[in-house]
Amino acid sequence: MPTPVSVARQCLAEAAAAVLDDAITVAKRRSHAQTTSLHIVSALLALPSSTLREACTRSRSSAYSPRLQFRALELCVGVALDRVSVSKSAVDEPPVSNSLMAAIKRSQANQRRHPETFHLYQLQLNSDSLNSSSMSAVKVELKHFVMSILDDPIVSRVLGDAGFRTQEIKMAILNPLTMSRFSSTTSRPPPLFLCSLSDLDLNNFPFSEDAATEKVDENSRRIGDILLKSRRRNPLLIGVYASDAYRKFVDCLKRGETGVLPKEIDGLSVVSIEHEISECISSEEMMEVKFKQVVEMLQDCQGPGFIVNVGDLKAFLNVKSVDVVNSVVSKMKGLLINPGGKLWLIGFLSGDGDYKKLIERFPSIEMDWDLHLLPITTSSIGENFMRSFVPFGGFFTMPSELESLCTTATKSSRLCNLCNEKYEQEVSDVLKGVSTNSVADKQSVNLSSWLQIAECETSNRCLTVEAKEDQTILDARVTALKRKWSDICQRLHCSSTSQEDITLPNPHTSFQNFHIQKESANVSPCMPSDFQTIYLPKQEIIPKPVVLSTSVDTQSEIRVQGLELNDFQNSSASQKKMMSLPIACTSSPPVTTDLTLGTTLSDSAEECRRKPNLQEHYNGIQHSESSLSYDILSHQVSQSSSCSYHREKQMYTKDLENSWNVLAEKVYWQVEAIQTISQTVSHCRNGNGRYHCSNKGNVWLSFVGPDKVGKRKIASAVAEIVFGGKEHLLSFDLSSQDVISPFNSIIDCHDPKYHKMKSGRKMIVDYLADELTKHPHSVVLLENVEKADLLVRIVYLKQSKRVNFRFPWKGNQHQQQCFCPRIDCPKEDTDTVKSDDENDDSDDSEVWLEELLEHVDENVAFKPFDFDSLTQKILKKIDARLKQVGGSTLLLEIDREVMVQILAAAWLTDGKNALEDWIEQVLCLSMEEARQSCNVTSDVVMKLVQYDGLVVEAQASELCLPARIKVK
Amino acid sequence: MGHSLLEALNVRVVGSGDRILVLAHGFGTDQSAWQRILPFFVRDHRVVLYDLVCAGSVNPDYFDFRRYTTLDAYVDDLLYILDALRIERCTYVGHSISATIGILASIRRPELFTKLVLIGASPRFLNDKNYHGGFEQSEIEKVFSAMEANYAAWVNGFAPLAVGADVPEAVREFSRTLFNMRPDITLFVSRTVFNIDLRGVLGLVRTTSGAEHGAHVGYRRSPPHLSAPNLLAQELRRALPR
């Protein structure tokens, strides 16, 4: 039982109590259930000068700079604290854990015995002799407190991780002088830091490769291994769980699951004589018939062969006449000796006692049947403890058994509609006795050559056995068909099946509307925390309405009552889920961009002069400020089928090229980056990656530079190109600042893909691991990596460095997964980090970044988006249009916020001509309308301003600009 | 290939002599647990020491959560080590989880083991209708959730229980090694251990001298090589083939 804080505090002297209070604050802040020694260490380290810090300084290894080693210590403590699970109910004062209380007790005892203070306690004892309880009221001094904290194994482990030795620290606390001399003379190997394990060669570890590719349960795997042997290759499972393991294995084969058996004998068929064996006493004829069948099957056998499952051999023990069994055994023996080695046998016994009896009764059975005893000690199914296993902390993950069962089951059994139809058709043909190569052969036109061969085999087999009417054979054929179609389905329609697996809610079903309000700037922090539930639809953001006001001169504005905007799309839903979002409250000085359009070149010269201002402005939108919707790639035609990576290679490469070209057109300003990425991805696919991909198929890319939008577009496109769908993109913003810039949050919150993770680093890792277990084929986009706090850094660094890191994608059978974090470190952002933090930190962060960047497969540099030329382009277009509409008499003044909005829309859009269309169809039309309603013929100046009072109700297609402009 | 596993599992061969003695540590410790037993045998035995892959002294990255789901994978490791060291016959001393590993190894390769000495072995820890393993499934689930919730507290509570609180130095040693294990691995291995059922398999052990069940009085729950090395060494001496 943990001890209440007040009790513990009573045992401590003032300084020690203060440390305890600090530790409690630490525990509370991390919402831990208890305060432990680790929290004390954390509190002690937080103090600029504490006993512990001093002692550490004196005892530290000379191999590293003190700053570095302290940093390591802080990290280690941080990591250790992160492993402590978070309690659900927040406690005001997390009580003192048993181990910490024990440490306090130890230090009390220590202090009582200590020579310096011994006499004091003796005195105290004498004076308070009447009150015996005073004995226990020894107030622990900080020094003794620290000493006993250091005895706590959890603490010494953490210190050890950072290269300190508790023994030396203790000596330093007790005797500073000798310590310092001691440490300078001792040469010590450099400490082992958490991250310095990278060069372990894990590839040479035996079995690890096998283990990585398999998803089968251990028992089935062992059975498969035995089947491969040249002698003693017929498994006899023995043990309490033998029948479990037997059933599981046989069922897998019957269902035609691939991957259960080793490659050499994959596709083994099953013939069950279980029933006949158990009945063999009563009818020998049945047995005869069965054996004949097996012989026939064996003669016709094309594939790897058959496995005869004999079931529980206990049946032999119950038989009265030994002769019957002996004849079965010898007949079976005759079959097993067949030259092709295409027949196996499998059976089980649930106890060693039965086995002994079996051997006693039929001494030759083990030799005759070439049996291999396989003790089964663990259940393959059922009440398995492993099932509820949840890895700690989220950094270490394993795909749960549940998951692997599911995937093996669904992978083969779930066909897409198309394939299922064809499969069913073939099955019905088989049942009717019709020759069956028709449908599949048509299908095979699209198949790769090797697949076609495999298929011909299946068809042939089907034909040769056609004459036989036996149910078993039919079964086998149906199974084979099922397997064939599941193979075809997996290879051809992988994307469609995987799409079904996506658990994300369909955007359209959860339509929400965002009401944009200027006042509610503080709503954003709560937004992303619950990303599970708030999946935003792709069209949720309605841009700010733009109001076009016309005025004869600048002073007097004639407000013309506006054109009614379209009705809310899906308005009922939108009202229910109305949410307020912060809007850009620009703090930057107002920039005047009265751009008079429709005039001559002198105006663009004017614009050029204003460039500095504008530039400042563009920087603003980089992060910023814009009430624009983020509509990433939403209108793009899905290319999933053409991108499906299971295609034949040549075709695939061609497709790939196309896809990359399409992307390069869309994100035209990052052509070079796209080239680099496409090269790296294809290199890595061919196994030529710099670091990781050659081993696991994971590709690491860092995206360096500004242009958040471009990075996102590219990441999403990579997901589509590599895995066939944008839903394969997992995106995380690692910036751990508590205060999110309202500008960024607008963009981020509005797109469901960009989860802003701010409720704890543990969550990011957990969540990421979780998502990756669910969707192993994913592109992971990590934004603001340089802002990630330290733990996350360590974890990612470790993972990027280590060849064999434990995320669930590691063991996946599909080698082509791509892990592609985007490391997003715009220059401006790094600068902010620098100025905010101590020098120490920024230094470290740079070191860390450099290190990380060294370990990715490729660094991709992003250029800043060129707003200037875009502005020019837009203005020219508008200008040209206006001339058509109103000749030279019409002047348009565009408000700077509107201009920003237009620019941002152009940046974000995926539609190639979307903006042009908008200018033509929306802007010009409205101006024409406005002009007519004003009924003026002389020179007119119109002003395009942002109107805050209204929600925009319709949006131009592919563009986050309103579909209509109000004329006032 | 072979070298890396031997290195990864810190395989050591110490002492000299014709006879080979394999000391395999139990759950929650590492080969250092045999430290005080070792001096008794190095003079006339070649002693093979290694760490289980789940031990805190082994790089946790080697622990493959998919592979080590049953004890058979541990058996693979043991046999691999013995083969790599070209050991043809040996005496095997295994404590707790290693006792089970030894049983399974000797079923698979009877010729390899002259004798098994099993300390604190149990075929099954969970109670059944007609079997008393000592633990109820529900109890164990509680322990597991406690482990998940507070690893440190569990270690602090478990170490004195497992070793016996009257031998504080041993407690410290035990909790040190226990703490060295990464918590998720500890939990995973505990679950593996509680999944095991050797009933129906024990009879397959063919190693001639059979197993000396280490349930010697007083050793039921504690690693005796920690709490009473001298006593255990004597017992072992008696048990070893002469």
Automatic annotation (TrEMBL), chain A:
Keywords: Repeat. Pfam families: AAA_lid_SMAX1 (PF26587), NBD_SMAX1 (PF23569). SUPFAM superfamilies: P-loop containing nucleoside triphosphate hydrolases. Residues 8-180 form the Clp R domain. PROSITE patterns: CLP_R. InterPro entries: AAA_lid_SMAX1 (IPR058954), Clp_N_dom_sf (IPR036628), Clp_R_N (IPR004176), NBD_SMAX1-like (IPR058680), P-loop_NTPase (IPR027417), SL_signaling_regulator (IPR051650). The keyword Repeat applies. Belongs to the ClpA/ClpB family. PANTHER family: CHAPERONE PROTEIN CLPD, CHLOROPLASTIC, PROTEIN SMAX1-LIKE 6. This is Clp R domain-containing protein. It comes from Rehmannia glutinosa.
TrEMBL record, chain B:
InterPro entries: AB_hydrolase_1, AB_hydrolase_fold. Residues 20-140 form the AB hydrolase-1 domain. Gene3D superfamilies: alpha/beta hydrolase (3.40.50.1820). Belongs to the AB hydrolase superfamily. PANTHER family: ESTERASE-RELATED. This is AB hydrolase-1 domain-containing protein. It comes from Rehmannia glutinosa.
